[in-house]
Structure formats: structure tokens, C-alpha cells
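Worked problem 6 (solution included).
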Amino acid sequence: MALGLLLALCACVLMGTATVFQALGARAVAARGPGAAVRATWQWPFLVGIVLDTLGFAAELLSLHSVPLFLVEAAVAGSLAVTAVVAAAMLHVRLRRAEWVAVAAVCCGLALMAVAAGRERGGDGDGTLRLAVLAGSVALAVLGRLISARFGGERHRAAVLGGLAGLSFGLVAIAARLLPGMAVPGVFTDPAAYAVVCSGITGYLLLIEALQVGAVTAATAAMVIGETVGPAIFGVIWLGDTTRHGLAPVAVAGFALSLTGALALARFGEAEQPVS
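Solution. The predicted structure is:
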């Protein structure tokens, strides 16, 4: 279990740092005409960010098989705290007192969950559950496209799309947990593997659109809720995730504290204050 905790923490740090490098890459070509977004992906900071994100995702997948889903997904949401701290150092952004409090809340919440979390019991579901997760992934992708095409009112559109993106990312974690292994050719016949791919692509597409049509705060906050709460409930009800004996209230408090801190930091990108 200690290794799983370490991997979840590594995922948090890697993903949070990746966001800052991607921001550096995007800024390098900001406001330079058509195709700027595409050119940003070829800047070396952005490429470093992609590598860090990939490593973080690999650490997340590995951790899912030794610690509960609620802890892993809270750690992923906690990467916003890492982003804030690294941005303060690399992008010369001044963190306000409220943002430092939010960072501390995320850290304290994760610490409480690490103390209270029980060992993941190895529940990887049956074939029916894997098929259900795949069906849910496809249904969410279809729903996302329908809402994207027909949803009226820009005011709430970013939040709705961000929430759907979060649910898709949550399904990625659930499907990865359901995978009993990555051995070839078995993985190519497992519905959970296709659910990982389907939900991952859907989540990124919906998040990009959410960020394009509305406020970053609304999209990010909704995404954080979707990708943490859903998998946590799924893990407890269907996969047997538990806490240590008598420490369930501590785990709930830690989860709520880290989620609250992450939601507070969801507005960080819009509240940057460059140091003069």
C-alpha cells in the first residue's frame, strides 16, 4: 500500500507540474496569428508537459491497484495545488493568502485520507460490470456531443461540459481499476480497455470545448467534482474500497477538505497576479 500512496502522490506532482509547462508553451506563441494553438504543442515546454502528464497518468494507473479510488482521484484533483505552487515559482505568479490556505487544505486532506485509507481489496469486477462501464463511456460520449450541439445559454454551458469531462475522466480511472492486467492479447478483448480509450478521448474533447465557450473557473470546478466524487462512490459501493477500522469519518473529512481546496484553486488560472 505504501507504494500505491507514493505513486498517487507522484501522479499529483507530475500532473500539476505538467500544467505549468504546458502554460509556458502556450504563452510562447500567444497572440501570434492563426495556428497559434497548434504551434504551441511543438514548443519544448509544452512537450515536456505532455511527457510529465503521461508519466503522471501511468503512476495513477499503477496506484489504482493498491489504494482506494477515492484517494487516487483526490490526489489527481490535488494536482491543482501543485500547479499553483509551481506557477508561483516558474511563472512569477503571486499566490494570495486564500490560495495558500487552499493549498494547505488539499495537503491536509490528502494526509488524512492516507492515514485512514484501507488497502484496496483487489476487486476488479466481472465481465458484466466491465461491459456496463464501456456502455457508460459510449453513452457519455454521445450525450456530450448532443449537449455540445444543442445546449442553449453560454452562461452554464462551460460548467455542464466541464462536468461531463470530469465524469469521463472518472470513468477512465474506474475502467483502469477494472483491468486485471495489461498482458497482450488479453487486454485487447477486455471491454474496460476500450472504456479507458473512449472516456479519455471524450474527456479531453469536452474539456477543450468547455474552456473555449466559458469561464475556466466553471469548467474546472465542475470537472474536479465529476472526476473525484463519482469514482469514489463507485469504488466504495461496487469494488469494496474501505478505510481502516473506525477511521471512515477521518477519510470523509479528508476527502471533503481536499475537494474543497481543489475547488477553491479551480479559479487560480483566472486570478493570476504577476509579481511586479
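Discussion: The radius of gyration is 18 Å.
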